[in-house]
Every structure is written in structure tokens, then in C-alpha cells.
Design goal:
The chain is built from 15 helices and eleven strands. With 486 residues, the chain is mainly alpha-helical. The strands form four sheets. Strands 1-2-8 form a three-stranded antiparallel sheet. The protein has a three-stranded antiparallel sheet with strand order 3-7-6, with no helix packed on it. Strands 9-10-11 form a three-stranded antiparallel sheet. A hairpin with a 5-residue loop joins strand 1 and strand 2. The protein is globular, with a radius of gyration of 25 Å. The protein starts with 14 loop residues before the first helix and ends with a helix.
């Protein structure tokens, strides 16, 4: 799964470097095939119907080696070549005072076996697989944030100031997860001195070791997929890295490969074998594949905010006036509206108690445009308390009746009031989106981005985030002004 999915423009001057990269890719792909065969995977012409190639727009990708009808078996991956908490357990025991989660264990293994420069990974167990992973994540926004907090030199850190507030908030949450995992891994290394003695070079310099762990952690966060290993389907350790699959690029629309459900998935239970039975992947069910055609994977129905923060890219750019599926997190605007009033603490307390604090969004599609039910619920309560001019639990019973389904709305006046606030919220979103798009267009930073070829592409991704906020806000405001029901 490459994180540069579909938008990056490559200049003609990079043709030679692309050729060199393809040659290196071919060499590592060949070594990966040998390693997979040794560990029991079928890689013959009739068993492995895909191959990895470099693309001009999205790094590497998977392509069909031959034409095949819908739902053809593209390849199968045996469990022993997967990298997860079960296959790594013998290498990194988790007993004692420093147990590791799956994400921490996999990232630890990558961290101590990171390839140096253009060399292959030194790992005797997974080296040929690790050597095919991306060598850096300089374009990922988490890398920018970690560098900015570590005082590492980086010309891309200023891009952080252009992020929409909701995106920045989501990125900070991702950074918190990263820091928690990094602290756990360092504690594990400290407690297990036999590992530290083998990999001292990674721990000598704080910045270097952190940089290495960013690489390891982002490979896990952007490439791991769900893999049932535990009795509970919701167990966060149900994930794995999977060779070959992680070359596939994401598509939000159109045909994509599918996964054959395992017996554990079908029966909702832990697998019989502790390491599971591996994966089997099928070609798109709704279309035939032609030889040389790219084979895509879908990460699910995530908004661009999530794709950008978690994976480092967004879905295709929006036109200046195009109406497409979009979602905007309005947490900061609604929170300010509520907390800036004297009743704010009371309203927040009620919303928290009832499970309605936060996760407020606006969204639009070809069929509709509206605020989320959670946002409507919060705004209704805010205006009920403001209009009553009293902070008392008995005074909000009409609101409780609405969320309990006993009545459709609090009152006509309450509906008018919260919709007026919705229009004001949209105005705020529109104004700041227009200002940010103007700044991104006029600051001239692209003229100085030659050292990082991905910078113009990433700046366009950020523009897409702002255009999405602008378009969603405009359409929702139009509906509110028309008096449409939500």
C-alpha cells in the first residue's frame, strides 16, 4: 500500500531515476519471490497473477501479469510469511513487565532491522520482505510534526501551519499514539539489554533513533491490515503486515481486489492455528482484469481528513465548483460556540454524559448535504439552554425527549435558532478556507521546493482538504438558507 496514491506529478527529468528505481525494485522483487517460495508460497505463473511495477504517479503498484475473469484467485499468502504478534512472538517475548502490543512489536522488529541507505535489511528472518518496504516517509505529515517537536531540520515543517484545524487535531492524536508506542518500545529495549547490545547505533542519538522509529511505525500504520488472531474480533492485536499486498495502491471508487473470508472471519472465532491460515486475494468481482492493468485495494470509506493523517494522501482533487462526497469535522467551531457562552460547562457536561460531546461533522454527497445528527443534537441543546437562560437539568427535558425519540424537535424557535448557528458555522468555514487557499496559492513556496519533489503534490493535497471544507460548507449553508429539513 503506497501512501502516494494517484496525485503526484513526476517531471520528465526524473525518467533516469525512475529507471534506476525500477531496476532496484526488480532486484528486490526477485529476492522476495525466492524468500516466499522457501517459506511455502506458490509463486508460479498460474499461482501469482500480479507483479510489482513502478508507476509515474503513485510510487509502486501491483499489476496483472495476465488477463483474468472476475473473482479470479490472484495470489495466496501463507501465514508463516506474515509479520504479526504471533509470528514475531518467539523473536520478541512479551512476558514480564514490558509487554508489547502488536503495533509495538511489529514496529520494534522493523526498527531494529531497518535497511541502511540502499542496502538490504540485515534481518535473517524477514530481510527480503523488509527490503521491499518504502525507505522513507518524508512526505507524511506525522514526520513533519515529529521533526517540528524534535527541532530536526526540515523544509516541510511549515506545511503544518497550512493544515485545517480538524486535520491538525487528528494529526496530534496520531502523534500521541506514536509517542506512546515509541515510549513502550524504548522501555522494552531498555529492559531487554541483549537487544540493545546488538543495536546500539539506533539508540546513541535521540534524533536518529526517533527518525528510525518514525519509519518503522509508519510502515506499520500505513500497511497493516486486519487479520483475525484473537478470540475477540475487536482485539487491537488482530493485524498483520502482508508481503505483496502492500504494493497495492488505494482506490476510493471503481474496481478493487477482495479478500476471501477465513474460517475465523466466517465463524467469528479465533483461528484454529495460532498464526492463522494466511490470505487469499481475488480480482475485482465486477470486472475482468486485462494484462498490465493496475490492481487496486480499498482502505474503506474514510474521509480525506483520515486518509491524509493516517496514510499521507487524499482522494482525487475536487474541482472549484464540483459537488462530491465530502466530510468536514467542525469540532473546533462548535466547541467554541458552546464554551464561549456562560452555560458552556453545563452543556458540555450534559453532552458528555449522554455521549454526544464531539465527533460533530458536516457532510455532502450527490444526494444530500447536512450536519451530522450529533452536531444537530449538540446545537439543539445549546440553544435550549441559552433561550431558557437557566442552568438546570429539569429545563432540558424537551431535549432528552428528542434524543429518546419521544418527539421530533424541541420547538419551532429552537429549530430556527440552531439552523442560524449552522449558517454562522458554515460562514466561518467558508471564510477560513478561502483565506487558506489564497495563502497556499500566493506564498511562493513552490518555487523553493526542488529539494523535495513531493512538496508540490503534498501542497495540492492540502488544497484539496481546504476545497473540501469550502464546498461542503457552501452546500450545507445553501440548504439551511432554503429552509430544508435535516
Amino acid at each position: 500500500m503506497t501512501s502516494h496514491a494517484g496525485n503526484m506529478n513526476i517531471d520528465d527529468t526524473t525518467t533516469a531515476s525512475m529507471s534506476n528505481a525500477q531496476s532496484s525494485l526488480n532486484h528486490r522483487w526477485s529476492k522476495l519471490m525466492t524468500w516466499l517460495r522457501i517459506h511455502g508460497m506458490k509463486t508460479g505463473a498460474d499461482d501469482l497473477l500480479v507483479e510489482c511495477k513502478e508507476t509515474p504517479t503513485a510510487g509502486n503498484g501491483l499489476f496483472a501479469r495476465t488477463s483474468c475473469p472476475p473473482s479470479s484467485l490472484l495470489f495466496g499468502v501463507p501465514p508463516q510469511v506474515l509479520m504479526n504478534i504471533r509470528t514475531l512472538k518467539s523473536l520478541h517475548p512479551t512476558s514480564g513487565s514490558t509487554p508489547l502490543t502488536a503495533i509495538q512489536m511489529i514496529s520494534l522488529h522493523l526498527y531494529i532491522n531497518r535497511p541502511r541507505g540502499s542496502e538490504d535489511s540485515p534481518d535473517p528472518r524477514y530481510g527480503p520482505y523488509i527490503s521491499t518496504l518504502p525507505r522513507e516517509f518524508d512526505s507524511h505529515p506525522l514526520t513533519w510534526l515529529v521533526r517540528s517537536k524534535s527541532d530536526m531540520e526540515s523544509g516541510d515543517v511549515p506545511l503544518l501551519s497550512y493544515l485545517p484545524p480538524s486535520v491538525r487535531a487528528s494529526l496530534i492524536k496520531l502523534h500521541d499514539r506514536f509517542c506512546q508506542d515509541w515510549a513502550a518500545v524504548r522501555a522494552y529495549l531498555t529492559a531487554n539489554s541483549y537487544i540493545c547490545s546488538k543495536y546500539d547505533a539506533y539508540l546513541d542519538d535521540v534524533n536518529d533513533s526517533t527518525s528510525n522509529y518514525i519509519w518503522a511505525w509508519l510502515n506499520v500504520n500505513t500497511r497493516c491490515i486486519f487479520y483475525r488472531l484473537k478470540s475477540s474480533k475487536e482485539d487491537p492485536d488482530n493485524l498483520t503486515l502482508c508481503p505483496i499486498l502492500d504494493f497495492a495502491n488505494h482506490t476510493s471508487i471503481g474496481s478493487h481486489m477482495t479478500l476471501v473470508p477465513s474460517e475465523a472471519d466466517i465463524w467469528d472465532t479465533a483461528p484454529v492455528k495460532s498464526i492463522g491460515k494466511g490470505f487469499r486475494f481475488l480480482s475485482p468481482a465486477d470486472a475482468s482484469l486485462q494484462e498490465g492493468e493496475e490492481v487496486f485495494l480499498t482502505y474503506g470509506g474514510h474521509p480525506n481528513r483520515t486518509l491524509f493523517v493516517e496514510y499521507g494522501f487524499v482522494n482525487k482533487s475536487l474541482g472549484e465548483a464540483e459537488i462530491v462526497d465530502g466530510e468536514v469535522d467542525v469540532q473546533d467551531v462548535v466547541e467554541s460556540l458552546i464554551l464561549d457562552h456562560k452555560s458552556g460547562a453545563f452543556v458540555k457536561s450534559v453532552l458528555e454524559d449522554e455521549g454526544y460531546w464531539g465527533d460533530w461533522t458536516l457532510y455532502c454527497s450527490a444526494e444530500s448535504a447536512q450536519p451530522s445528527w450529533r452536531a444537530i443534537t449538540a446545537l439543539r441543546l445549546h440553544h435550549l439552554v441559552v433561550s431558557n437562560n437557566t442552568i438546570h437539568d429539569n429545563a432540558i427535558q424537551p431535549w432528552r425527549d428528542v434524543i429518546a425519540g419521544k418527539q421530533e424537535m424541541i420547538s419551532d424557535g429552537n429549530e430556527i435558532a440552531w439552523k442560524q448557528s449552522l449558517i454562522a458555522i458554515c460562514d466561518t468555514l467558508i471564510a477560513r478556507a478561502q483565506a487558506s487557499l489564497h495563502s497556499l496559492k500566493s506564498d511562493g513556496a513552490e518555487e523553493h521546493s526542488s529539494s523535495n519533489g513531493w512538496l508540490p503534490w503534498m501542497r495540492e493535497n492540502i488544497r484539496t482538504l481546504w476545497r473540501e471544507e469550502l464546498l461542503v460548507a457552501v452546500v450545507v449553508k445553501q440548504r439551511a438558507l432554503r429552509g430544508d429539513d435535516f
